[in-house]
């Protein structure tokens, strides 16, 4: 039995047990252990922390395999356990159980209220801005969070001042309304998006385009609009939670738009943790179409489109501000800024690990126009506030 055969047995056994494939780090641990590497060597080769591999991911993998194979499994004996499974020729029956029936997340829905104001953009186009009250939160991910990155460290306490943020990512209708306003610094294309739809998020807009959108709206309304700081974005995404997603420990494609299928070539899993696999829609969805908000009343914080933040990219949080402000370097002239900015939230084309509350992305320069990148906006002071009731969903 070779490693590829062993991996096939492990993947199918786990798929039957919890409805997902092994994650990247689990495959790395399995392969490293197969090659008799130590946890330290596995962590170094896979670019994970030793503590995470040794104390969390490794033990969790052996526990998961023990449940899937119905026998004791450890780093020392897993090869024999997989070989026994192989030689009993159970592969043909492993996929007979419908994983959706085996493992199904339940969304608990409750009613809450949010305060908001409406910006009238003309031509019956409205922009809902939700009030976010002041508070503090722990920014970044803990070292034992599955599929985390070192760029999410160190965790640090951040104090946030009250502000308002758009309820959804900016839509194509809202974009067209503001793009028709007088130019401030640069020209804006009226209809840049690849996936057309008035209520779909605008995409294929650069960071500079998003800044110009804010400048035009500010000039028109006499209120100061801008992109959110990275700290503000994570604060509103978490909405008081400390789990990988504001839904809870995992996520499903029933409540968010991301790639829930496996990528065998790159060993990417369409599931997160013990959550199920899902579907791949291959395009954006209408904002708010899943009809489940987080506790702050915001929609589509996980998936659909990546969202530009105001901050310059930094490789980690060493020296990051703790007052919720954007972390920017010398040049404060936004229209002339160079380098990379921060993207948050994941998108329709990404796996669930990229959609975590703490996940950060710098794979695109400020002038990129990709069909999986959009944005939402913030305002420090709004108009008269209204109240609305909305459903909040939590995955137990």
UniProtKB/TrEMBL annotation:
As one GO molecular function, the record gives:
formylglycine-generating oxidase activity
**Ranges where the Sulfatase-modifying factor enzyme-like domain occurs:** 128-378
> Which superkingdom is the protein from?
Bacteria
Show the InterPro entries listed in the entry.
CTDL_fold (IPR016187), HTH_VMAP-M9 (IPR058651), Sulfatase_Mod_Factor_Kinase (IPR051043), SUMF_dom (IPR005532), SUMF_sf (IPR042095)
Domain called vWA-MoxR associated protein N-terminal HTH: residue spans: 1-84
Which PANTHER family does its entry note?
FORMYLGLYCINE-GENERATING ENZYME, SULFATASE MODIFYING FACTOR 1, 2
Q: What is this protein called?
A: Formylglycine-generating enzyme, required for sulfatase activity, containings SUMF1/FGE domain
Recorded source organism is Nostoc flagelliforme CCNUN1
């Amino acid at each position: 039995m070779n490693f590829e055969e062993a991996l096939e047995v492990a993947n199918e056994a786990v798929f039957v047990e919890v409805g997902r494939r092994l994650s990247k780090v689990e495959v790395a641990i399995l392969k490293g252990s197969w090659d008799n590497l130590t946890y330290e060597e596995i962590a170094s080769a896979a670019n994970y922390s030793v503590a995470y591999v040794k104390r969390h991911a490794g033990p969790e993998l052996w526990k998961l395999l023990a449940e899937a194979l119905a026998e004791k499994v450890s780093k020392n004996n897993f090869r024999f356990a997989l070989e026994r499974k192989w030689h009993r020729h159970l592969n043909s029956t492993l996929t007979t159980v419908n994983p959706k029936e085996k493992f199904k997340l339940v969304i608990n829905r409750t009613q809450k209220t949010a305060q908001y104001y409406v910006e009238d953009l003309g031509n019956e186009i409205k922009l809902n801005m939700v009030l976010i009250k002041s508070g503090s939160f722990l920014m970044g991910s803990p070292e034992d969070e599955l599929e985390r990155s070192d760029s999410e460290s160190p965790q640090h306490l951040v104090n946030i001042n009250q502000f308002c943020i758009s309820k959804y990512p900016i839509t194509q209708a809202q974009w067209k309304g503001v793009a028709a306003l007088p130019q401030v610094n640069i020209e804006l294309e009226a209809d840049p998006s690849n996936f057309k739809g008035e209520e779909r998020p605008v995409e294929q807009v650069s960071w500079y385009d998003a800044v110009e959108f804010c400048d035009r709206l500010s000039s028109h309304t006499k209120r100061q609009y801008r992109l959110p700081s990275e700290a503000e974005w994570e604060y509103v995404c978490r909405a008081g939670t400390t789990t990988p997603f504001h839904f809870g420990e995992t996520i499903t494609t029933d409540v968010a738009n991301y790639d829930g299928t496996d990528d065998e070539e790159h060993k990417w899993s369409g599931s997160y943790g013990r959550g199920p696999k899902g579907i791949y829609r291959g395009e954006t969805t209408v904002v708010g179409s899943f009809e489940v908000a987080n506790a702050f009343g915001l929609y589509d914080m996980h998936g659909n489109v990546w969202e530009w933040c105001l901050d310059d990219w930094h490789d980690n949080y060493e020296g990051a501000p703790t007052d919720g402000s954007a972390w920017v370097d010398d040049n404060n002239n936004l229209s002339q800024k160079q380098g990379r900015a921060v993207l948050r939230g994941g998108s329709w084309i990404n796996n669930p690990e990229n959609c975590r509350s703490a996940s950060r992305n710098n794979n695109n320069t400020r002038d990129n126009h990709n069909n999986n990148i959009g944005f939402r906006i913030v305002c420090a002071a709004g108009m008269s506030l209204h109240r609305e009731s909305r459903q909040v969903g939590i995955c137990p």
